[in-house]
């Protein structure tokens, strides 16, 4: 088992990464002095696979836990579903000395985290992510949110977990499409921060695709370490942390326009990264060969790399509501080669994205 730490002073917390470590969850939560009365928020799919085992692991260490189940899917990541979590917490008698455990993927983690941030003005929570995307991205860093019909993650809070418990064995029950979606975020870390990691992913893609546990632990560990290093410098995304949104500005527009759940988050981010890389090449920040390397690695994991055929106007309107718009100016994360990136204000997004999209084949 590997252990990392997100160093945020009094809000610091550990990340445990290992193979078949769900049974150690109770011990891990005891080490961070987690409340003994717990609600486990999950969905029917993940709950059917792992809830009983998690409840047993908690009971073994003296925790008293109940489950709160929410529907499965991005389309349910909204205020209506959030209210059902509050209902479950109230009905089970959780007070300010209780805790919440998020057992599931990014949707469960984001909603449960936001519920924890706002229930009784804040109770402790822990993340037990069961998808690759949530293990390497949404479970670390304290971003919690729900979607609004006009934009993704527009309603939320920064609220750090007490513990993140990553068992790569849960990835064996993950559909291939979900695993591929998670690989988009893994590849992202190599593009924006670590060329050697990008190259490692290329040389270990076969091991990752057959779910070799050693390779999975290494990929998750390196991804989480990169994210932790960034979050430690800029917890609330006032500067550096914005680089983690590489591919997300255009990607969120794809998700919004397609309808939440139709195109998975990681798939949309993969498309967004290709769009950003092509944009970077038009500004001489990277070469066409580096764009091809990015596109090829993403495609090799079964990810889409062509934007859906929405109109330029639709894309611009969706991106105009992005959280990274500052005083009406769209700020984009662009790669500088592979292994580095920068933030760039796009003064004329219509011209910029028209130029980019005109060079790309459009999907359906």
Terminal CA distance reads 43 Å
CA gyration radius, whole angstroms: 20 Å
| SSE string | EEHEHEHEHEHEEEHHHHHHHHEEEH
Query: In terms of per-residue confidence, which ranges show pLDDT below 50 for 5 or more consecutive residues?
Result: none
How many distinct beta strands?
12
Structure in words:
This protein has 364 residues and is α/β, with parallel strands linked by helices. It is 47% helix and 19% strand. It contains 14 helices and 12 strands. The strands form 3 sheets. The protein has a 7-stranded mixed beta sheet with strand order 1-2-9-6-5-3-4, sandwiched between helices. Helix 3 crosses helix 4 (106-118) and helix 5 packs parallel to helix 9. The longest helix has 21 residues, at 213-233. The chain is globular, with a radius of gyration of 20 Å. The mean pLDDT is 95.
In short:
With 364 residues, this protein is of the alpha/beta class.
Q: SSE layout and pairings?
A:
Layout: E1 2-6, E2 13-18, H1 25-31, E3 37-42, H2 44-60, E4 64-69, H3 79-91, E5 98-104, H4 106-118, E6 125-129, H5 132-138, E7 143-148, E8 151-158, E9 163-167, H6 176-193, H7 195-203, H8 205-209, H9 213-233, H10 248-258, H11 265-282, H12 288-300, H13 312-320, E10 325-326, E11 329-335, E12 341-346, H14 349-358
Parallel strand pairs: 2-9, 3-4, 3-5, 5-6, 6-9
Antiparallel strand pairs: 1-2, 7-8, 10-11, 11-12
Helix pairs in contact: 3-4, 5-6, 5-9, 6-7, 6-9, 6-11, 10-11, 10-13, 11-12, 11-14
């Amino acid at each position: 088992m590997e252990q990392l730490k997100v160093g945020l002073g009094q809000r610091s917390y550990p990340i445990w990464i290992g193979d078949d470590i769900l049974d150690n969850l109770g011990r891990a939560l005891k080490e961070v002095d987690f409340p003994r009365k717990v609600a486990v928020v999950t969905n029917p799919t993940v709950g059917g696979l792992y809830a009983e085992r998690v409840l047993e692991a908690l009971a073994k260490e003296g925790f008293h836990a109940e489950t709160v189940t929410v529907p499965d899917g991005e389309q349910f990541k909204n205020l209506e579903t959030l209210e059902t979590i509050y209902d479950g917490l109230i009905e089970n008698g959780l007070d300010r000395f209780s805790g919440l455990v998020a057992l599931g993927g990014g949707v469960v983690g984001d909603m449960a985290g936001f519920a924890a941030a706002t229930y009784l003005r804040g109770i402790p929570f822990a993340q037990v992510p069961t998808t690759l995307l949530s293990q390497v991205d949404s479970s670390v860093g304290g971003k919690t949110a729900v979607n609004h019909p006009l934009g993704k993650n527009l309603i939320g809070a920064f609220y750090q977990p007490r513990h993140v418990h990553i068992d790569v064995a849960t990835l064996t029950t993950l559909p291939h499409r979900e695993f591929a979606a998670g690989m988009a975020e893994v590849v992202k870390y190599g593009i924006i921060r670590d060329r050697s990691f990008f190259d490692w992913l290329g040389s270990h893609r076969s091991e990752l695709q057959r779910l070799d546990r050693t390779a999975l632990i290494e990929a998750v560990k390196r991804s989480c370490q990169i994210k932790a290093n960034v979050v430690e410098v800029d917890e609330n995304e006032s500067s550096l942390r914005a680089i983690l949104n590489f591919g997300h500005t255009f990607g969120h527009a794809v998700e919004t326009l397609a309808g939440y759940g139709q195109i998975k988050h990681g798939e949309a981010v993969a498309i967004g990264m290709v769009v950003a890389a092509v944009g970077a090449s038009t500004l001489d920040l990277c070469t066409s060969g580096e764009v091809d390397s990015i596109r090829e690695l993403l495609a090799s994991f079964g990810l889409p790399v062509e934007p859906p055929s929405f109109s330029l106007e639709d894309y611009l309107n969706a991106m105009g509501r992005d959280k990274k718009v500052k005083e009406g100016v769209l700020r984009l994360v662009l790669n500088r080669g592979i292994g580095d990136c920068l933030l760039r204000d796009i003064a004329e997004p219509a011209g910029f994205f028209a130029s980019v999209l005109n060079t790309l084949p459009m999907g359906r």
